[in-house]
Amino acid sequence: MAERIAVYMAGFPSFLLYFLVAVALLAAFSFIYAKITPDHEWTLVKQKNSAAAIAFGGAIIGFVLPLHSAITQSISLLDCVLWGIVALIIQIAAYYGLRLAIRDLPTRVANGEMATGILAAAFFVGVGLLNAASMTYY
């Protein structure tokens, strides 16, 4: 039993390093996303704006999906960070792409339009899934 615990513990530093890098990338994404949206997402969520919470939640999930792939597919921590940055750029680009399709997207979300928040979340998760699926070496 002690040997099994020792084997698990030997991998703990790598786990911790990848986890902390992922959390840092998630924090960076959340910060950038909140900064590029005209109405600060955290403020809208604190004001109990469900549409903003759903859209922001979808953006976070849409980023974490390819980040998961980056962690599982990477050959090193640096490789993981680089793919994490690619995921971040793709998700930010997805936001701007959706704004082209729905020109008044920020206003509609800020006004609490649930349909727009749900559509935005679904779009961000969909882009995240495509992004994640594309992160492969095969």
Description:
There is one protein chain. This protein is an all-alpha fold and 138 residues long. It has one domain (19-134). It is built from seven helices and no strands. It has helices spanning 2-10, 12-36, 41-46, 50-73, 77-101, 105-110, 114-134. Helix 4 packs antiparallel against helix 5 (77-101) and helix 4 packs parallel to helix 7. The N and C termini lie far apart (37 Å).
Low-confidence stretches: none
- How many alpha or pi helices? 7
Strand percentage lies at under 5%
What structural category do the secondary elements indicate? mainly alpha
Number of domains: 1
Order of helices and strands: HHHHHHH
Main sheet attributes: strand count, strand direction, barrel closure: none
Instruction: Average the pLDDT over all residues and give the rounded result.
Output: 94
Shape: elongated
Distance between the termini: 37 Å
Structure summary, number of beta strands = 0
Helix content: over 70%
What Rg is obtained from the alpha carbons, in whole angstroms? 17 Å
